[in-house]
Specification:
single chain; Cd81 Antigen, Extracellular Domain, Chain: A; 2 domains; about 0% strand; disulfide bond; transmembrane; Tetraspanin/Peripherin; Tetraspanin_EC2_sf
Length: about 200
């Protein structure tokens, strides 16, 4: 991107038609790649959903191994009020939260605190609220943890904010088209001035 910006700025300042053409072609290429990505995302949305499930489940497995990953998962689960990729039982993939008899962890059959339904009356965060919660029936779980998966909640968020997301993409596309038009206009003006010399 810095090469693209450099080519556009220097091409305009120095009236260098080669750099301006490079800027215009590269910006057009990026525009068509974004357009193709959007079309492919719409066509292959089921495949993308499966890949998102796979990605989240792999990160669930490594939840306690990487503090940055742990913070990212906690943020996503709190923001979207969700738990796991498809639901709380995805946490069975993690060695600390799985329900096997071989697991000596206190977090056995539990979920992270970010899955818990927050009590607005409490000022202090209860980090042990998810302990043993997966031993309960699903109806009993609903009062203490979020039972919806993050993939479904992300899809719901995307549908709820579709106008904003589409507006951002259309705005970026219009800026790119505007940049291409301005660069081509400047190239033709430079050629017209050079022809009159």
């Amino acid at each position: 991107m810095s090469v693209l910006g450099f080519a556009g700025c220097i091409g305009a300042l120095r009236e260098n038609t080669f750099l301006l053409k490079f800027f215009s072609v590269f910006l057009g290429l990026i525009f068509f790649l974004e357009l193709a990505t959007g079309i492919l995302a719409f066509v292959f949305k089921d495949w993308i959903r499966d890949q998102l499930n796979f990605f989240i489940n792999n990160n669930v497995k490594a939840y306690r191994d990487d503090i940055d990953l742990q913070n990212l998962i906690d943020f996503a689960q709190e923001y979207w009020s969700c738990c796991g990729a498809r639901g709380p039982n995805d946490w069975n993939l993690n060695i600390y939260f799985n329900c096997t008899d071989l697991n000596p962890s206190r977090e056995r059959c539990g979920v992270p605190f970010s899955c818990c339904v927050r009590d607005p009356a409490e000022d202090v965060l209860n980090t042990q609220c998810g302990y043993d919660v997966r031993l309960k029936l699903e109806l009993e779980q609903q009062g203490s943890i979020h039972t919806k998966g993050c993939v479904g909640q992300f899809e719901k968020w995307l549908q709820d904010n579709l106008i904003v997301v589409a507006g951002v993409f259309v705005g970026v596309a219009l800026l790119q088209i505007f940049g291409i038009c301005l660069a081509q206009n400047l190239v033709s003006d430079i050629k017209a001035v050079k022809a009159n010399w």
